[in-house]
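In response to the reviewer comment on reproducibility (Comment 2.3), we provide here a single inverse folding case reported in full, input and output, so that an independent group could reproduce the run without further information from us. The structure tokens appear first.
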């Protein structure tokens, strides 16, 4: 099942993020739940994790701690790289590790040495580290600091809607910006969509949606993004699909996209008045 595979990949990514936090806190073996709850506390403040039940996260931390206790350093870092396939997820792991690093004076040197090695192993640049430090010092979430620009997320969801109707396309930055900026003007929005469809309908050699859509959904599931940007992207995709002419295929795609983006039911009305 496509859905099962995508959520398995994201679960593996999420476990890698949790393991980076555990390692930064010098946890390499199962520990008492009280200590895990202390480590978990900063995560519960993250808007991107709202809706995650604390007991579920606690059990996942236990599972990750058990796995770390059975692996060598080389295996751990190799596994982290495999489950964090792109630079932004690796930067997110580093940011979460920084946030979890122990404030105990006795552990500062160990935490600093681990963060230095994690930076090297994940290929995080010095400039990225400096920016992450500044962002966290300013109260930003690691998720927000590592997120791709909102325009990239908008492009992902728009191109996915096109793929679902058999049109493979790479939208330009200007096209994405025009669509995103005209959402409240239904007439103008539909004019832009019609222009896109006329341009794409002739001479398009679309890859099979059965191949493209799952790959794009997996990329969407792994892309770091703030809660606000995820909601904005879903609303844009929903309005785009309405303008194209939504059918069952698009309904199912939007349902899964909404689940991947964590869009609450209260935000499920894609009409301009319902935003």
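Designed residues, in position order:
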């Amino acid at each position: 099942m496509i859905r099962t595979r995508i959520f398995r990949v994201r679960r593996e990514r999420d476990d890698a993020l949790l393991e980076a936090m555990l390692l930064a806190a010098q946890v390499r073996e199962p520990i008492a739940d009280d200590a895990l709850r202390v480590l978990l506390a900063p995560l519960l403040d993250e808007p991107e994790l709202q809706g995650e039940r604390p007991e579920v996260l606690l059990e996942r931390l236990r599972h990750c701690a058990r796995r770390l206790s059975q692996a060598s350093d080389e295996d751990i870092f190799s596994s982290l790289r495999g489950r964090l396939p792109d630079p932004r997820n690796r930067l997110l792991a580093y940011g979460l590790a920084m946030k979890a690093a122990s404030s105990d004076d006795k552990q500062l040197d160990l935490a600093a040495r681990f963060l230095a090695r994690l930076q090297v192993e994940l290929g995080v640049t010095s400039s990225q580290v400096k920016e992450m430090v500044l962002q966290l010092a300013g109260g930003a979430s690691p998720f927000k600091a590592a997120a791709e620009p909102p325009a990239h997320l908008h492009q992902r969801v728009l191109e996915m809607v096109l793929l679902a109707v058999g049109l493979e396309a790479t939208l330009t930055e200007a096209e994405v910006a025009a669509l995103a900026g005209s959402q409240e003007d239904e007439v103008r929005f539909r004019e832009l969509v019609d222009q896109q469809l006329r341009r794409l309908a002739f001479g398009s050699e679309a890859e099979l949606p059965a191949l493209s859509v799952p790959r794009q959904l997996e990329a969407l599931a792994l892309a770091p993004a703030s809660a606000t940007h995820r909601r904005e992207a879903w609303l844009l995709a929903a309005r785009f699909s309405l303008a194209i002419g939504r059918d069952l295929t698009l309904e199912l795609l939007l349902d899964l996209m909404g689940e991947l983006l964590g869009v609450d039911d209260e935000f499920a009305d894609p009409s301009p008045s319902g935003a």
